[in-house]
Specification:
- This protein has about 160 residues and is mainly α.
- It has a single domain, classed as Ankyrin repeat-containing domain (Serine Threonine Protein Phosphatase 5, Tetratricopeptide repeat), CATH 1.25.40.
- The protein has nine helices and no strands.
- α4 packs antiparallel against α5.
- The radius of gyration is 17 Å and the shape is elongated.
- The chain starts with a helix and ends in an 18-residue tail after the last helix.
- It comes from Crepidotus variabilis.
- This is Ankyrin repeat-containing domain protein.
- It holds the Pfam family Ank_2.
Amino acid sequence: MEKSSHDESQDKASTLPPDTIAFAHRMFDAAREGDTTLLLSAVDAGLSPNLTNSKGNSLLMLAAYAGHTELTKGLLERGGDPNRINDLGQSMIAGAVFKGHIEVVHALSAKGADPRLGTPNAIQAAHMFGRHDLFKEFGGTEEDKTNVPNPLPPS
């Protein structure tokens, strides 16, 4: 049986020193929890804002999905890629639409996030969750409405 690239990256990670692994976990926790000072200090010291975990979620994606607007903006300003897709084919802008983090959606859009990337993409997510404002803002068309589940009523 052939190893996947995911298996190979797991093998490489298992050879890292425990302190390095603990540091990475601390940074991913900082992204999820919105610890802007800690994470941006680490990025300013050389940590990549595009560092990904074992599921392909970058620090930026975790911060965006959790709704941490200022941290998201800080990571974007420091080179975070707003179009990075995780291992499940999900985009951070679609995740922010799904979670209702509109300020994060606008921060990602301002830095060039493509609303057509990912599955479902941000346009489809906006339609599914009744976010007609975002659907229109993203340039959604009637065709975009055909390949998604029925939308939820606006909240």
